[in-house]
Amino acid sequence: MIMDPAVMAYYERGGELTRLRQGRGRLEYWRTRDVLRRTLPPAPARVLDVGGGTGVHAEWLAAGGYDVEVVDPVPLHVEEAGKLPGVHSRLGDARALPVPDGRADAVLLLGPLYHLPERADRVRALAEARRAVRAGGLVAAAFISRYACLHESIRLGTFVREESRAADYRSLDTGVIISSKEGGFRGYGHLPGEILAEFAAAGLPEPRLHGLEGAFGLYGDLDDWLDDEGRRELLLDAARRLECEPSLLGVSGHLLAISTA
């Protein structure tokens, strides 16, 4: 399988080394971790972390006793994930996983579906996850919300620029995300209903949808909430209570869909 060269170049710059470990990206990290800790089978279950990047989630999973393998198409990511204690890593593509049928107790797709603009490729990746997980195992997939780019542009103030508005409106109309910045992010933004349809097309039971950041991700400075453990737990509890409310799903920058194969 061939990865989009622009996407490969974007990730080879090393942004995933810090994106979820610093700044406001930590809200996505803590919320993803929170949902997974409540839904994954208990350790020492075998977890296949597809598109697991530099191992930000594989790290805490391995520390918790899980048998974790990261499969990622970016050599830099595979190298960095492989340095983490208890984490195995190798090159691979979500659309053709290099593992036998039923290998895992849980398959995580916490990034690959961001970068597959063609529906057939996304369904293929989900079908591969279904193949790789045992009967009764868990498949968890993350998605960018269709509305995320517009929300982010307003928050950052870049919406005043004509080229930024054009990119945001194109994303709203088509789902295709192409940053107006040179060498910027490229991906695909989902509507909640699209996610359900793609799971069904891949032969997976209807997933439960979780909004990760919720409206909190639209707020300004979150450092005071994320730096302090006590305040962070209050924020996570509030987000947990709202995470599956259908009327709020599209507000989240990221959605997490969980299904039992």
From TrEMBL:
<dbReference type="Pfam" id="PF08241">
    <property type="entry name" value="Methyltransf_11"/>
</dbReference>
<keyword id="KW-0808">Transferase</keyword>
<dbReference type="InterPro" id="IPR013216">
    <property type="entry name" value="Methyltransf_11"/>
</dbReference>
<dbReference type="GO" id="GO:0008168">
    <property type="term" value="F:methyltransferase activity"/>
</dbReference>
<feature type="domain" description="Methyltransferase type 11">
    <location>
        <begin position="48"/>
        <end position="140"/>
    </location>
</feature>
<protein>
    <submittedName>
        <fullName>Class I SAM-dependent methyltransferase</fullName>
    </submittedName>
</protein>
<keyword id="KW-0489">Methyltransferase</keyword>
<dbReference type="InterPro" id="IPR029063">
    <property type="entry name" value="SAM-dependent_MTases_sf"/>
</dbReference>
<dbReference type="GO" id="GO:0032259">
    <property type="term" value="P:methylation"/>
</dbReference>
